[in-house]
Design goal:
By secondary structure, the protein is α+β, with helices and mostly antiparallel strands. It has 3 helices and 5 strands.
């Protein structure tokens, strides 16, 4: 089974698009949507010991924070905290 691409928008949060739906099509309805590349579980474990983690856009933030661009940490986006 093929999967769609992962995206994040401030309104809808993190989600995987249905197969065949493009980022460009999704952005017509949610213009702030960006492509998102979820971290590996190993990265999440490493970040716990680092007392920080990446935000959706790659900035380094506190686990329960967001970056200066307004994107949440992966822990928040994945609803882990």
């Amino acid at each position: 089974m093929k999967k769609g691409i992962n995206v994040y928008s401030k309104i809808r949060g993190f989600r995987t698009l249905k197969y065949g739906v493009t980022l460009e099509t999704y952005q017509k309805k949610y213009p702030d949507a960006i492509r998102a590349y979820p971290p590996d579980p190993d990265d999440l474990n490493d970040w716990i010991s680092d007392c920080g983690c990446e935000a959706i856009d790659g900035c380094w933030v506190e686990p329960d924070g967001e970056c200066s661009h307004g994107y949440p940490s992966w822990f928040l986006a994945l609803k882990m905290i």
